[in-house]
Amino acid sequence: MKRLALTLVGVVLALGACAPAAPRNTGVYLLLDTSGTYSNELRKAETIILYTLARLEPSDSFAVARIDTGSFSEQDIVAKATFDDRPSTANTQKRAFAGEVRQFVEHSNSAQYTDISGGLLQAIEFLNEKQPGRKTIMIFSDLKEDLAKGYVRDVPLDLKGFEVVALNVTKLRTDNFDPKEYLSRVDSWKAKVEQGGGRWRMINDLERLDGLL
Amino acid sequence: MGILLAITPWPAISALFWIVLAVAVLYLARHTAHQAIHITAVALSRGLRMAAHSVGRGEAKLATRNREVLLAAGREAKERIVEREFVRVGESVRKDLANYPALHRALSESIARIEENHQNAVDVPPEAPGWVRAVEAVAEIDARKGGTEVLEDIHKSLVKAHKEAMEAYRTASAERHGLLRKMMPEWRTVLDTLGHVSKSVESILTRAVVVDRHMQEYEDIVRGQDRAVSTLSSSSVVQFFVSALVLTVAIGGAAINFSLIARPMAEMVGGTSYIGTFRTANVAALVIIMVEISMGLFLMESLRITRLFPVIGALPDKIRVRMIWITFAILTLLASVEAGLAYMREVLLQDELATGALLRGENGGGLQNEYLWITTVAQMGMGFILPFALTFVAIPLETFIHSLRTVLGLAGIALLRFIALVLRVLSSVVRHLGRLAERIYDLPLFVPLWLEARMKHRSDHWRADLEAESEVRT
Fold this sequence. Notes:
Helix content of chain A: 40-55%
Largest sheet of chain A: 6 strands, mixed
Strand content of chain A: 15-25%
Largest interface: A-B, 21 and 21 residues
Order of helices and strands of chain B: HHHHHHHEEHHHHHH
Shape of chain A: globular
Oligomer: heterodimer
Low-confidence stretches of chain B: none
Distance between the termini of chain A: 52 Å
Structural class of chain A: alpha/beta
Order of helices and strands of chain A: HEHEEHHEEHHE
Strand order of the largest sheet of chain A: 3-2-1-4-5-6
Radius of gyration of chain B: 52 Å
Mean pLDDT of chain B: 85
Number of domains of chain A: 1
């Protein structure tokens, strides 16, 4: 009887050890606003990308995509990688990733329209496919959405388990005349994210990125 | 409360009434209440005393058991020591006294040669001069009859003979001195040989004294004398702390070893997989260290330096020697793997530094330190040496395990003794609290008690007067 009990305990422990563990990796999707004058801010975005690359670990996923007229497309992804679980290979991938981003920053053209919602939908799709333990979408934009004619973006965002971080939300010239415009813009995005079940954060001081990831 | 004070129109009177009533009730129930308090206190006190007694018995049993364990361990240790001493004496006898016949023969030969030389060196006294009478006879011859020439001739002959005799005597003396000189090395040889024999005998005598001392201690242990138990106990405690200290140092070494191989292990088993809540790379590094320590234990067991696994010690010598070589080979392989991992760690570190510098936009990321090879070699050396150093953990581990049993026993005895003391103190406290409760009960009853005492005093007086009166009448 005692032996049977011990065997059962052993089997239970073994099964417990074999059970699939919850993923511990991180998935980050960075949306870069390339519309109008905001495209001048891309140098700052490069700093954020390099910082993020330095913080990411093997097995983490990272993608950088541009926001342009129609952002709900894989073609807008500038660089993407799921780092290998061997640290040396992951380092090589990071170096290649940094090279791709540098090339994009140097040769990018400004877009006519700003489809932030499409970019968010693409980010949700990408990260859900990767199934990381922690999902973060970073939006490097002034949050002023400007959709081209014919683009419909009144799709509800399913952001459960996502953290959305707005970075470098610059004030527009019109915001200076009426700050309520800026505040309502930020609030509307916050409400949209929280309604979708996500968590909202905003970081404007790019010198202090400690809490970014 | 208001109801109680409302039984009369005057609350003070009501309160007084209730107080008097309460005092009266308490006075009437005094005897029963005292008995109840007394019985409760005594019961509790006895219960605690019984508990203290049984804890004391437990302590005595534990002490006896600990004593047995201590004596058994001490006996075993002494047997090992005496056995080793006998082996050393045996080796000494075999090494030093095995060639005793040769020494004896050398001594005999030396002595024989000395005797022979001595015999030859004996001083032969010069023969008595036989020609003295001839000289006297010649001296009596008249000088005129030509005796002078004869005497001169004799004189010349005598001088010549004397010279020859002196020459012969000197030659003989020189030969004797030569023989005596030849004896000196023989004497030295004899002296050296005897010195060697003396040293060997002294060494054996010293060993015999040590064996005697150990045997005396062994006999004390076998007889179970208190002195032996006390010595073994204090020795065990000292061994416990010393081995704990050495084990702490070894744990530090294992931690350094772990940090050397944990990072490069991620290259082999992946850096993000987990077993439970632990990274697989860390678990793998820990397993390697544990395997090294296990191999070290087996090596020490096979060498019969430790005796944690009697099965290994009891193996036939041939298998045991094979086991020594196998464990040593595995240890060497693991040490080589660790040295490789330590090298890999340095390479990875440089790679990470270079990537970090690139991502920070620093230009100096690719700079190479020309003295970097020193740290690389040092890490590799540590990676290779630490597994062998960890092998020796087996010795303090064995001591720790053996002494732990005694120390735990002593701690248990101390704990039980303390519990027994606390129970005894509590028993006494409860008994006194019972008495105190009786006095506190009597405190509000001081008026009726005072009256009772007065009445008793008066009745005693009255009774005494009656007795005195009746005595007067009779």
